[in-house]
# Entry
Amino acid sequence: MKKILSTTALALVMSVGAGVMSADAAAPSPDAVAAPDVRPKIQTAARIVTMERVYGSYYRIYKERYPQALDWNNNGCSVPFSVPIIDHYKNLFQKSCDRHDFGYRNHGKSGYDRSSVDSRFYSNMRYQCVVVYDDWYDLPARGLCYSAADKFYNAVRLFGGGSW
# Structure
C-alpha cells in the first residue's frame, strides 16, 4: 500500500510539473521560468522579438507568453524636449521605439550587441516611413520621415550607451 501511495503521489507531482513546464501556449509560472529547459525558449523569444520587423506579431505573442521572464518595460521614444515635429515622429515611431527598448533591456538574454539592436531600430523606423507614406505623392513626406529616422538613430548611437 505504501508503494501505491508514493507512485500515485509521484504521478500527481509529475502531472502538475508537466502542466507548468510544458505550458508552451500559456505564460509560464515564475518557477517554470527558472527551470533549465525553459531558458532556451526565453532566449529564443528574446532574440526573435529584438530583431523582429516592426508590425510583426511576435512582440505581442511573446509578451503574453513570457510576461515576467523578459523585461517588457519601455519609455517610448523619449526625447529631452517637446517640439511638434519631433512629437509627430515620436508617435509614428512608437512601435520601433518599443522594440528598441526591449532589445536594450533584454540584450543579456538575446545575445545581440548594441550596434545590432540600434541597426534594427533604424531599419524599423525607415520601414514605418515606407508603410505610412506609400504613394508617389507622399515622397516628400517620406523623405522627411527618413530624415527624422536618421536623427532618432543618431541620437541613440550618440547618447544611448548609458541605457545599455
Notes: The two ends are 59 Å apart (CA to CA). The chain is about 65% helix and 0% strand.
